[in-house]
Specification:
Elements (H helix, E strand, L loop, with lengths): L11 E3 L3 E4 L6 H15 L13 H17 L3 E7 L7 E9 L4 E8 L8 H17 L3 E6 L4 H9 L2 E7 L5 E6 L6
Parallel strand pairs: 5-6
Antiparallel strand pairs: 1-2, 2-3, 3-4, 4-5, 6-8, 7-8
Helix pairs in contact: 1-2
Amino acid sequence: MLPKVWRSTPPEIKTNRLLLRCPQEQDGPELFAAISESLARLRPWFCWTADIDLAESNSVLNAAYARERFLTGAELQFYIFPSDGKTLLGICGLANPDWSIPSFEICYWLRTGYEGHGYMTEAVTSVTQFGVEKLGAKRIEARCDPANRKGIAVALRAGYTHERTLPGERKIAVLVNTTLDYP
């Protein structure tokens, strides 16, 4: 379960090039800009884009909502910034927590125009490491549409392996971090 200090001091992850941190209400305008720029590329892969009401005011509310979910452990979205903290590059987080194991699903997207620099692989690797070292994760999985080759490639570069593809209306390739010991 989440440490009590979490609410007063939400964790940050710093890498050589990135700052990954808890959402803040003032991130709304940057969130709006990132989603606006990237919406056409995100639509094929994310169901939340289907009925999104794209307005800057809604992005402020979404950032505030994401912060509350982060602080309560319901969903741990890290907003990704370059180390200077100025431009929102995307989101990488641990969703659908099962705190009894603990296990998570890692979710991520990158703002259009920032692909090809290794930012998302760096973020996924760092958030996975955070999940294991700070939260005691026994299982972290990425679920990607098999046609989302870029999303799958990120997971593979970050140390995940293909476990199975789920049958159904929309097939999902499940990739797991194989360094963890939960069956």
